[in-house]
Amino acid sequence: MTNYSLLNYINGEWTGEDLKKIEVVNPATGEKIGSVPSAGKEEALAAIKGANAAFRSWSALPAIKRADYLFKLQEIMLDRQEELAKIMTLENGKPLKEARGEVLYATSFLQWFGEEARRIYGRTIPGKTENHRMSVIKQPVGVVAAITPWNFPAAMITRKMAPALAAGCTFIVKPSELTPLSALKIAECCEEAGIPKGVFNVVCGDPKGIGEAFMTEDVVRKITFTGSTAVGKLLLRQSADGVKKASMELGGHAPFIVCDDADVDLAVENIVAAKFRNSGQVCVSPNRLYVQSSIYESFISKFAEKAKSLKVGNGLEEDVNVGPLIEKKGYEKVEHQVHDAIEKGATCVLGGKGRAENGAYFYQPTILKDVTSDMEIMNIETFGPVAPIQKFETIDEALELANDTPFGLAAYFFTTNVSTGTKLSEGLDYGIVGWNDALPSTAEAPFGGIKHSGLGSEGGTEGIEEYLETKYISMKI
C-alpha cells in the first residue's frame, strides 16, 4: 500500500514532523495514500523569514546563474517524470497519461523563464540638458507568496515559481490540502538542483493561518493565486492594506462556438480533448457549447460517437481516459446541474449518470442537447465532464450568448471563414481566445483572464513582468 509521509520544506529544512497531519486521499479509491504536516501561521512566518533572508543574495545573482538553476530543476523533474506523474494521479485522480503530460507542461515554464531571465530589459531616455541622464531599470519585487489549486498540482506551481525565481524573487507556495504531495516532490527536486535555502519554500496546512501570515507581513510584496473568484476577491481586499502586488487567475465559464462553415471533425476532436481532460476540472474547460443550427444535429451525432468510447476509471490504468472528480461537493454540483437542465427541457444524449462509492466519485462523460440560457449549467461553471449544447442562428447571436457572463478567461470558436473568425476573435470578451484550437495554453504565450476571471498574466513575456518593479533613475553629472 502506498504511503507518502512528507514534511514541509521551509528555509532549506524538512520540518513539521511533530505537527498534526493532513491525510491525503486517492479520489479514485477513497484510500489514504499519505500525509503532510498541517502548518499554520507560525510555520508560514518562518518560511517568510527564510525567503526574506535569501532574497538579497538570490536577487544579486547574475540572471544566467539563476537560469542555470531552473534548467537543472527542469532536467531533474524530467528524469523523475514517471514518479511525479504517478504521485499526481494518486492524489488528483487524472489519468496517468495526462499526469505525464502535466510534468512536461510544468517543466516547460522552467525552460521558458530560465531563458527570459536574460531578457529583463530596461531603457535609457534622452536627458533634458547636457549633464542630465535618465534610465529605467527592472528589479525583482521581493518575497512572493503563492496559493495554488488541486487541479494542476505541478504546473500551477512552476507557472508561478519559474518567473519569480528568474526575476530574482524568492518564493513560498501553499498548495491545496487535497494535493500537497506534488508540491513537496517539486521541493525535493529543488533541493537536488542545489537551489539555495530560502529561495523555494512549501508550507502545507491551514489556509486561514497561512493566508493571514502572507497578507499581513510587509516583506511579502506579491501575492499570486489560482482558484475561485470568491477567494480571489477576498485576497484582493486583504492585499489592499499592504498595497501588495497581486496576480489572480480566477474562475472561468468558457464558451465553445461552432459555426456552420467549421471543420466539424476538427471541432469534435478538440471538444473531446478539452472538455473531458481532468474530468472537466479545468478553469479553461469549454463549459457552454453554441452550435449553429444548420450543423447542430450532425455535430452532436459525431460528438457523441467520439465521446462514448472514453473509459472512466482509476487513472493508474493505462486505458482510462476520464478519472474521478476530486471530492463529493464537486460530484454533487455536477449531478445537480445535469438534473436541473433535464428538468427544464434538456435532452441527455450521452451519460448523465454518476457513481459514488467508498469515498470515490465518478461521473460519465455527458452530452446535453436542447439546452437553454435559463439553465444553471449555462450560467455557473460546472467543473465536471458535462457538455451542454445550445443552438444559435447568427454570429451576432453567438457573440451575445458567449459574452453574457461576468467571467472572461477563455473562449473558443471554430470556423474556416477569416471574416467570421476575425469578428469573433475581436468581439469575444476573454483574455484567451482559441480559433480552431481548444488547447491553446503554452509557456510562450500569456495566460490570464479579464473581468471577474482575474488580473495579470502568466506565461509569455508578460509572465515575468508580474514579478518585477520599475525604477526610474534621474542623474545629473
UniProtKB/TrEMBL annotation:
It comes from the Bacteria. Its EC number is 1.2.1.-. The keyword Oxidoreductase applies. Keywords: Oxidoreductase. One of its GO terms (biological process) is gamma-aminobutyric acid catabolic process. One of its GO terms (molecular function) is succinate-semialdehyde dehydrogenase (NAD+) activity. Pfam families: Aldedh. Residues 14-473 form the Aldehyde dehydrogenase domain. InterPro entries: Ald_DH/histidinol_DH, Ald_DH_C, Ald_DH_N, Aldehyde_DH_dom, Aldehyde_DH_Superfamily, Succ_semiAld_DH. Signal peptide: none annotated. Belongs to the aldehyde dehydrogenase family. This is Succinate-semialdehyde dehydrogenase. It comes from Terrilactibacillus tamarindi.
